[in-house]
Amino acid sequence: MKKIGIGAIGIFLLLQIFVQLTFKWGSLSEANWLPGYIVANLVSISSTWFMMISYKHLNPNIAFGIAVASIFICGQVALSLVFKSKMVFLQWIILVVIAVCMLLFTTLEKQQHN
Description:
Elements: H1 2-26, H2 30-57, H3 60-82, H4 89-113
Helix pairs in contact: 1-2, 1-3, 2-3, 3-4
């Protein structure tokens, strides 16, 4: 059951990264604006299906925490790599801190149920 929930978060994450990249692409020119907006929103709406699946199979607080932190971390990295937006060293450190906090958040849930 937990594998299904984790897999659903993984698919949700991939779709949301695509959404963030599409929104950024849409902002690059007036010609891209409406197509970027429409495509990103359609994919985003579809991605919520996978978030709902993760809620069904995992603790919803853990699922939400993993999803939001992962989207933030992966979205920042993807935007930086694809659109060559530079991040300073401290921003990279903050992403690592968020990842560590996310791991602690999920570990504490496991300890509570043992």
